[in-house]
Amino acid sequence: MDRGALESGGHGERRLRFPLGSAVSIEELAKDPYPLFRRLRDREPVTWVPELGMWLLARRDDIVAVLADSDLYTTDSERSTIRDIFGRQMLSSDGPDWIRYKRACMPPFRRDELERTVEGTIKDTADDLLAAMEGRDEVDLRAGLSVPLSLQSVLRVMGLPLEDSGLIHSWYQAFADALANFSGDQAVRERGHHAAGAFRSYMEPFMSGDRVAPAESLLGQLLSNEESALTPTEVVSNLLIVLFGGVETADSMISTCLYTVLTHPHLRHDVETPSGDLSGLIDEVLRWDAPVQSCTRFTTRPTVIRGVEVGAGETVQCMLGAANRDPSWFPDPDRIDPTRRNAKDHLSFGAGRHFCLGAVMARMETETALSAFLKAYPDADLIDARAARPRGHEFRRPPELRVRLM
Ligand code: HEM
User: Fold this and answer.
1) Is 2 contained in some domain?
2) What is the pLDDT at residue 184?
3) By Cβ atoms counted within 10 A, which residue in 4, 69, 378, 381 is the most buried?
4) Quick check: is 7 in a domain?
5) What is the average pLDDT across 275-291?
């Protein structure tokens, strides 16, 4: 999830050598990237995309190798959009700082801790949101379920007051646009900085002790944990990545799973099976349409990927959606098959050291939302399947999810 330097010229021969990559547009990636990914995997698995000023990787094995090598392919770069907007935090650092940040933020996201602190809240919140739909003919499941559920769940783990959720959510679109701002639009960047500045000001009373977060929450622990010794700036920057990572992506995961089940009626049967285990289905939907489409890395020295020379300091974009449909790993990859044995090998939560901090929690939220919704409204029907189709070149999800509740 990041931006590369814009092509400033001098790459004429790359255009000739990589005709498919040269024709790639953000619009095509946003709408339906999968036919393009198929062509890239077959003909230009490592390609240069002038519109993004980045190398794109499309084969699963190349992507796994890049994400495993944080020495050669780092997240630590001045050119990172995440660093630019959120400051130094775990997803734009490597080495000792990354260890310090991730170690400090990890404990509240461990399964046993989540079961103790937030699982009940997730269930109660989902039930309350579904109960609020009663008596209505139609609802938008993003506004009515996936956005408030993901927001309230992550605020709870972080230790920020639920009554501030509206304010906090008002900064989201600016963050999402700025992090996916691969073309370097200055106005988008400024809106991102403005929103991050507003969050930093919002955090001041917590940092000074005028407002207090619960001791077991992430914020409570970060402020009391002397061993991890994060500076106040580092605390707020890491909270920003957790907060953004915890809402934008979980909202996408929940709404994409709901969309997929609503548009593939045979999958409802799986949700309704007595065992109630939705993990296979959820992994398969994550594989089929990843909510986060790429992991961005910056080369620390010149290298060669599949015979292609890549210079030092260049941006290598690992296309997770392309890896997830690589037929060498997933036979018949365009088919949704919840019984697929290796569905969990998808890369939708990343891989290597930057593997998603919130993967367990996002699964908890999605399982709860999916089973509670289909139990409460088993005959619900999508009103406009075309309008609900997931889209987005970086953060991908249904723009809306209007359903008739029946
Ligand atoms: C509770 C919800 C979530 C939280 C709190 C969260 C938080 C984070 C954080 C803090 C990181 C950086 C980890 C590091 O640098 O070591 C991360 C990485 C990542 N997350 Fe999540 N996340 C959540 C949900 C999701 C979901 C639903 C997806 C998509 C299915 C996702 C996809 C990713 C990916 C692909 C990475 C790796 C990025 C990279 O290596 O460049 N996350 N997440």
Assistant:
1) no
2) 83
3) 4
4) no
5) 91
Q: 213: domain CATH number?
A: 1.10.630.10
* Exposure b/e, 118-155, CB count within 10 A at least 16 = b: bbebbeebbeebbeebeeeeebbbbebbbbbbbbbbbb
The mean per-residue pLDDT over the stretch 26-33 comes to 95
Q: What residues are paired with 274 via a beta bridge?
A: none
Any ligand 1 atom below 6 A from CB of 253: yes
The whole-number pLDDT of residue 273 equals 62
Q: How far is the CA of 251 from the centre of ligand 1 (A)?
A: 12
In a domain, 4, yes or no: no
**Residue 19 within a domain:** yes
Question: Could you report the per-residue pLDDT of 181-193, keeping only the tens digit for each?
Answer: 877 899 999 999 9
Judge whether residue 208 has pLDDT over 70.
Answer: yes
Structure-token match 């991890």, residue found: 228
Residue 12: burial class (beta carbons within 10 Å; 0-12, 13-18, 19+): exposed
Task: Give the whole-angstrom CA distance, residue 26 versus residue 208.
Answer: 43
For residue 211, what are the domain limits?
12-404
Q: Which helix (H) or strand (E) holds 281?
A: helix 279-288
Nearest atom within ligand 1 for CA of residue 1: 41
pLDDT in tens, 238-252: 999 999 889 989 999
Q: Report whether residue 362 contacts ligand 1, using a CB cutoff of 6 Å.
A: yes
pTM assigned to the model: 0.94
Q: Is the CB of 242 under 6 A from ligand 1?
A: yes
Structure tokens at 312: 């030092």
* Cα 331 to Cα 335: distance, rounded to the nearest angstrom: 9
